[in-house]
Amino acid sequence: MKVVILCLFLVLSAVTANSIVLTLDAPDTNISGLAWGDGKLWAVDEMTDYVYSIDPTSGSVLSSFYVSHSSTYFPTGLAYSESFDLVCVGLWNNATTGYVYKYTPSGSFEGSVSMCGG
Question: Residue 87 sits in a domain of what CATH number?
């Protein structure tokens, strides 16, 4: 009886589980952050310091821009602000300090906010 219940549970779990509908290739090799905004998927690469705007249906890169920063910081996260129409890149120095760099979707720098002290 326990085996039948377990099998029934596994079948029901498989039927009700979400499925993958699309897989996209990464635009670069060290993606460290993803975000959704403006109808696009956004990705940032930790090694090349590029932010990519990606078509969510085809996976093609629509545009990209370089995140200029101190060599001691690394892009470790990404967010999109629908309210301000900004791409926000989280940078961290692997110690005590982090920043959020704000960019327009076309890549114009709009300032930064210090996080975690100085």
Answer: 2.40.10.480
Average pLDDT over the chain reads: 85
Residue 4 belongs to some domain of the structure: no
DSSP assignments along 5-66, one per residue: HHHHHHHHHHHHS---------SSS-EEEEEEETTEEEEEETTT-EEEEE-TTT--EEEEEE
pTM of the model: 0.80
Residue 6 tokens, joined: 């377990």
For residue 84, the SS3 value is coil
Whole-angstrom Cα Rg for the chain: 19
Location of structure tokens 């093609």: 60
Structure tokens at 67: 């995140």
Phi and psi dihedrals of 111, rounded to 5?
A: 120, 180
